[in-house]
Amino acid sequence: MKKSAHNGRTFAYSKEQRQKLSDKGGPYFMFREDFLDITTMAGAVVLQKLLNFARWRMKKTEAAGRSFDGWFLYTVKLFRKQLRTKNKRAQLRLLDPLEKQGYIITARRGMPARRCIWIDVDAIDNALEKAGKVVPSFVS
What is the pTM of this model? Predict the structure, then answer.
């Protein structure tokens, strides 16, 4: 499994974490309603979009025979298309609270450097458990 480092922390999805990411689902319209117990409504919508995109990226990467390390490219243009945000500043207002809560990590990676996101599915599971919610979205 390929590992990458960011600020001294090693990121790589274990087999269990990949399973958690691929097994997500449940009763939601635009987002899982349990997410409202751990973040705002806007944060819940963005978190669900990111989880859906990460799941799609993981399946596409593994279908190509490569290992998915959890990082995925989520550009300003793609964010604008999926969430109808007007500019980068509006996007940062949506992503910053999720990053401060520890659910995602953003970094500029690659050459040329572009925004990439890593989702901490364990932190989301722990927050849902602390809120007293059953976690069927990640745990099989």
Answer: 0.72
